[in-house]
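Students often ask why we bother predicting the structure of a whole assembly rather than each chain alone. The short answer is interfaces. A chain on its own may look different once its partners are present, and contacts between molecules only exist in the joint model. In this exercise we take two input lines together and write out one structure for the complete complex. Read the inputs first and try to guess which parts will touch.
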Amino acid sequence: MRRQFRAAIVGLVFSTATFAGLLSPTFAQDANTITIAQQVDALTMDPAKHSSLPTANILFQIYEALVTKNAAGDFVPDLAKEWSNPDSLTWRFKLRQGVKFQNGEAFNANAVKFTFDRALDPKFKAPYFSRISAIKSVNIVDDYTVDFKTAAPFPTMLSSLYEASFAAMIVPPKYIADNGPDILATKPIGTGPYKFVEWRKDDQIVLEANPDYWGGAPAIKKVIFRPIKEVRTRIAELQSGGADIAVDIPPEDVAGLQGGSTKVASIGSDMVYFFAFNTIEKGPLQNKLVRQALNYAIDVDAIRQAILGGMGTDVALTLPASSFGYDPAWKPYPYDPAKAKALLAEAGYPNGFTIPLTARSGRYLKDREIMEASIGYLADVGIKVEPNYLEPGVWATVSEAKGRKGIIFPGWSGLDPDLVWYPILYTGQYQSYYSNPELDKLLDAGRATLDANQRKGIYEKAAAILKEDAPQLPLVQPPLIYGLSARLIWQPRADSFIDLRHASLQK
Amino acid sequence: MVGYLLSRLLYAFVVVLGVSVAVFFLIRIGGDPSALFLPPQATLEEIARFRTLMGFDRPLIVQYFDFVGHLLHGDFGRSLRYDQPAMQLVLERMPATLQLSGIALLLSLLFAVPLAILAAINRGSLLDRSGLVFSLIGQSFPTFWLAIMFILIFSEKLHWLPPSGRNGWQTMVMPSVTLAAYSTAIITRLLRSSMIEVLQSDYIRTARGKGVDDFGVVFRHALRNAAIPTLTVIGLQVGALLGGAVITEQIFAYPGVGRLAVESIANRDFTVIQAFVLLMAVLIVAINLAVDACYGLLDPRLRKRG
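Now the answer. The structure tokens for the assembled complex follow.
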């Protein structure tokens, strides 16, 4: 009896060992294929029907917009060749000729008009409606010229017409008319460098190079997008040859990935971390001296070195350093705890005070660690911060009711002062906890003209107010960190779009 | 037996109904997804406009009856994020999860049953004691830790197994073993102790006395009786496996329904959460019914009682 059982166990152990022996390294890399590991899968293949960046990143390979960005972050022509402003309420685009959608349908002014009419229709319920809502109408001038009409001057139009404005990706009208309004959700057709092949939900999306792409067939023939939420797993895939790009690598893993079969690429994102002060509510934060003291109290650069491994960019104001209008001559408040204490005493708080912090946690790279380090610095000058980390859904509900208390950690992205300062500093905007008529006047002026030089001058004045009145505490522009296979030649972009048009594999 | 099963069926229906009420109202306590779904730049007016478009501004009770009304027509609503029928999203991912949980359950039984029997008949031996230690370890290691260790060892260091996905049997090994670890441990411990208890009982002594051989005693007499409490736990374990699959799927990037559920909860995608929870409730209730029915097969006394 016992012997029988022992034999069974031995058999079991033996078969397990054989099984292990059967395992062969299955990670042979295909010389023409790359795999990209993002955190989550696409939600849909219809560019106007979602509000998710990972989805947009996949669709960016298939569809294109009128304008795009180059590696330096400048707007450059894509499906539009050039643009002009015949008057302050019109943006006129000359379209590229001879471009075809992947099904052979011709790209022309009608496709542009159809794309925006579709997404602007309230019944369509486009989640990114707000990005294009300033467009009142799209008028066809001729087959390859369109006019975008706005009710008021709209200086940030190009931001609304490139790939980060998801609903601005141009879709084929005839294909949709022939196959029904839901066809794009599962069978996307665009003008882009890659064609859709297969979507295994939550597992992988396969794209293949579009040989007829107007910009020339891309060098990499096949691209696979895989959703891998857990960062350790993304790194494991990278190290075992299962991925060529892995997004959102933590700074502490950078050193380990440099060398061998992997490398790291990093760029400052188009986002800013900062603390916003609730100056609407009664309390110490209504006092300018207190707000300045807080700005002096935190050693932002030390935090960046310690927590972000020295990556990312210090910012002087709550605007990405790569933004329109950002002046490199702007200087942040220096770290000076003695000065902070003196200012607090002058403001009538020699022993400091207690203040709540309203934030989300784990939403952005190292946000929690940066907040905790800041809380430590503030404690050193006598300010006791009571953090209240909210789940994103609760944060959204609280924000809608204008309920963010004390010090706030919102995180914001945008590369134009109008896209950043207007929503978070203009009086009465629901995410603004500050009111200054003088600043409001400037922010109004900044969005009322299309003249770039005039706008720069306006925002220069606004910057001076923001520095002096200190309604916010700028922290850092966090980095985007990608783990790459050593064989991939590719540049990351600040807006976190994965642009494969110029990517290639080492031979 | 039929009456017994009918009463269980009625009970099951009440449970599912209760779950539908609970899930509907619980997920709406924190507010609706409008502000979460729209880009951060959206204005209050745009959020309000979207809320009206989606009908989230109607009284909850009206929304509930709307939900139940559609449910009676088999319509679980459309996912806000995916803009697709919610139940379809769940069902699409269900086979992967069932496969993973099924293999994990099979693995647990394959290891647990022989291990428990061996341990019980060799009580106090080295095998028994090491089996106990082993199952204690299996029970106390958290799934996510075990999963990450597996990835570190078998993918990063040894390059034996791919770390993630669902692409051939190699990708099934680590997730199913991870998922099976806890169940194996708990089934082993339970079956071992019931076997020990049964092996000491009078009728086993009688069986041995009338000359039944070791094999007959263990399999025909002892195991059948020891199986009843174990069956209950196995039934519960199926639920635990389906639930545990959430973490396992997340770490191994396995395309099952658990990941969909986690993302949907984080984004307040109500219709998908409802479809997922209701389907799971039906599934677990069905498994419990099946376990109840199995009692009858194993124990004739329960059959007559009905």
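Check your guess against this: Chain A has three domains: 28-44+192-268+480-505, 64-185, 270-477.
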